[in-house]
User: What shape does this take?
Amino acid sequence: MNTNLTLQKASTIEQDRMRILLIEDDREAAAYLKKGLGESGHVVDHASDGEEGLLLAREAVHDVFVVDRMLPRLDGLKVIETLRGEGVSTPVLILSALGEVDDKVKGLRAGGDDYLAKPYAFSELLARVEGLARRGHAQSMEAKYTVGDLEIDMLSRSVKRAGNEITLLPREFKLLEYLARHAGQVVTRTMLLENVWDYHFDPQTNVIDVHISRLRAKIDKGFSEPLLHTVRGAGYTIRGGTG
Amino acid sequence: MAALAKLVRTSTFRLAAGYLVLFAVSVGAILGYVYWNTAVLLERQINDTIEAEVTGLAEQYNEGGIDRLLRTVRDRSAKADDSLYLIANFSGRGLAGNMGGVPREVSGVSGWAEFPYSIRTADGVEPHRARAYHTNLQGGFKLIVGRDIEERLRFTSLIRQTLFWALGLTLALGLAGGFAISRNFLKRIDSIGETSRHIMGGDLSERMPISGTGDELDRLATSLNEMLDQIERLMTGLKEVTDNVAHDLRTPLTRLRARVEDALRANSKPVYRAALEQTLGEADNLLRTFSALLNIARTESGEARSSFSLIDVAEVAGDIAELYEPEIEEAGGQLEVAVASGAMVRADRQLLAHAITNLLDNTLKYAAAHSEDASSLSVRLTVSLSGGDVLVEVSDNGPGIPEAERKRVIERFVRLDSSRSEPGSGLGLSLVNAVAKLHGGALELGDNAPGLTVRLKLRAANED
Assistant: This one.
């Protein structure tokens, strides 16, 4: 959860500049997010209530919507439902003070793509927003992922680096697949725990780190150029040498 | 007027009105049938006797001529009954019979006629009506034979009146009854409404009135009262939790405040920075503690029960073992897993996983950190079936917990002195305990000689 502001540069490496619509009624939180996202190289439009947010969202110029769940005038979930009803498919990250698994399910059912419970670390939010924007650019399920000289074949479930076969355990394969699907972006520990293990709570210890280091030992050991990087204070990213 | 309109709108009144209409229609139909039958029957009877008499008299005339007919008619007229006779010549003058003359209503060759006539009684003259058949005989004579129908008319009019009265009475009684029943019903509904408004106004101790008849309204009121009992219990529980949370968070918040105040006095950039970093860390810890507390409170409230599903505990335990094995190995220990098949429970997967995670977190935090020789750390995770229970056990060979302290460590925020230096909130086992209770089970701490055994007992799902 530790926020370290120096990490922002790392997370925006090779990241396209995005236009983000932020619908959030808490002025201070909005200013903080606007500043942070702006410093990460993104453009932020801000709406302070549901109706205004809906109007701006209909302009259809944004890469990602970040929507607070409880908004004046028009509830956040209603905004998302309305937009989905109108065929707007822009990815949505829901922010909410309600952190129960149930609330999350409700949010995703309304048409949200990801759900982040308040309070959150900025690094977590940034990683998720950038992950969603990528998803918007049809980077989802593919038969084959390539990161540098690493090849992941989803059909035969085999991994090769520089032509040499690497044997992974099923969970390690799933972990690598998730990282590769988000190649070039920062992936947080919580995102890994949610998506690779399907656990929606925070273990106290750093169980994820050990899994990552084991995976790293398998894919990076013996190669001069590492692919799996730790982004201090935020999480991990996988990327090829040239970006 | 408004009260009346309200009464008329009640479902009871509408039901009563519906039945009333149905009842009135059937009463009307029955009485109408009786009336019609009697009237027709009586008239036919009169017609038959008159016709028979006319035939008989016509025969007498044919056989014995006008003289014999006149004699017979005179004889019959002399009897004091309700028969009327008249024989008139072609000019209309009466030759024999007990009628004054040919009534105006009688015309044509032959046929039926009804007409008024008067009879003499002791008190004077009484108007009556008669029904008669008249026919022309050969030789220009006219024969009229009739009967007094006053009785019959009175009788049918009596039946008609009965019909109207019966209908009227049915309607009046029905309406009055409908109003009375609806008003009684409405009064009870209103009192339930009134009570619920009081309860919404904040007085949770009020209960719905019960009349004691055990009818459907009583049954409704009883289940509403049970619901209110449950709500009151939950509200009380919630208040206790809120009080606890407020109390438990005050200490770290006070510490945080003191640190900030202290740093502000220092007036130096490096001190500020250090204080801010510490504050951020502290805030994160606070938030973690806060969400752990909320998690425990929610688990204790039992709301997760509605989303229970059938879960294989062995599978969940296996998943978590896979998640933790690398870290335990990294700490120099080893994780041994033994799971029985068919350990099914009705549970919330996330909560169950969270509980087992907390147990393994604890072994890493306390057993690994406090073992004399970390490289010999040995953790065992087992899932077994015992009677009607599924047992999840986590055992280690760490320092263990003295028997006297085992009950206490389950309470919120209780941390043993030996582990105060470790990071943590003292809420891990409290959540495990809440999860155990939510699933109808229990949490037990035991001696692993050496080390600690934590046993999470869950009620096994029925095999069906």
Notes: The longest helix of chain A spans residues 122-136. The longest strand of chain A covers residues 19-23. Residues 1-14 of chain A have pLDDT under 50 and may be disordered.
